[in-house]
Amino acid sequence: MARSLFAPTTLRRAIARLGFVQADPIRAPARAQDLTLRHRVVAYRAGDLERRYATLAIEEDFFVNYGFLPRAKHALMHPRAIRGRWGPKQERHARELLAFVRERGEAHPREVDARFAHGRVRNWFGGSSNATTRLLDVMHYRGLLRVARRDSGIRVYAAREPSPPASAAERRARLDALVDVVVNTYAPLPARSLTGLVGRLRFGAPQWRKDLRGALQRAKQRLAQARIEDVNWYWPAGDAPESALHAPDDEVRLLAPFDPLVWDRQRFELLWGWAYRFEAYTPPAKRRLGYYALPLLWRDHVIGWGNLSVVEGTLKTEIGYVAGRAPRERAFRRALDRELERMAQFLGVAR
Question: How confident is the model at residue 128 (pLDDT cuts 50, 70, 90)?
Fold first, then answer.
């Protein structure tokens, strides 16, 4: 908590300190990236990241998940070498599309589709998607395009200048730096979680997937660590877990489902003794917590969850508790009221 929920600062500094902010398009009541940043940025309002994106030295791309990274960290993953070559037709389409984007400076998918209209293709979920939009996504992942900004949530692209290939020595240094971003974002990490997250770098840097095992072993050698109740834990060597500065405060926080404090489900259960699950894609009849349940942190323990929605400009709240009831302390009731007031201000709605 102390290393992740640092004192609120500027948006630029918060992203730099987090290292990575996972994104998700669902708004219930706001996007995950906004729900994550509101605890860490002074006077943050829903949508501030999208509104200010073009003025920040950050990039939107895939890392261990899809999200936002400081530009210097993002550059460590490129150039990406992707398995499999394009066919002649797709390669021609990509060249034409890249030339079109370069000529315009920025291009909205709607403008690109009006110019090219490549038809429909099968998407990841077995349905049909716009072929031009799909090609934009692939070119973005391959490093030919970057997200310049968003227009009402839709990615607007610009051409990305190619990165020079990394030498063998640079490859090792870059991988170690990427692992450090992961650890900085999610530590302290149980050994199994560290292994899993380093393995997920195969998505951000697929060209180095064969080198990830070595990067993991080097990380285990340089990170601080301890064995507690048969679990090995890892964290940055500069941290001081025993510091008195880490005492919890009397605050309630409703966390995003992908907040760094919540993302690691194994650690969540080790620390707080119950299983949290993200159920947006679970059939309604099988949901236990709710469509978009936000873990409820009280002091240094996640004791429940909240389902929030905005109905006719008013914040509606349903709170559930692992123990079946709320803590009886007056301090908790006051802290929950403060958090709901902060949430309403963040969303720009009434209580």
Answer: very low
**Residue 158: CB atoms within 10 Å:** 16
- Chain center to CA of 20: 6
CA atoms in the 13 A half-sphere facing the CB of 204: 30
Distance in Å from the first CA to the final CA of the chain:
27
* pLDDT surpassing 60 at residue 119: no
268, 303 Cβ separation under 8 angstroms: no
Place of tokens 């950050």: 58
Mean pLDDT computed over every residue of the chain: 93
Together in a domain, 272 and 321 = yes
Q: Specify the DSSP element, H or E, that contains 50.
A: helix 48-52
| Domain enclosing residue 219, as ranges | 168-235
Parallel, antiparallel, or unpaired: how do β-strands 21-22 and 145-151 relate? unpaired
pLDDT at 248: 87
Global pTM reads 0.93
83 in a structural domain: no
Q: How many domains does the chain have?
A: 3
Q: How far apart are CA 238 and CA 223, in angstroms?
A: 9
For residue range 30-39, what is the model confidence (pLDDT) as tens digits? 999 999 999 9
Residue pair 129/171 in contact (Cβ under 8 Å)? The answer is no
Do 154 and 177 have their domain in common?
no
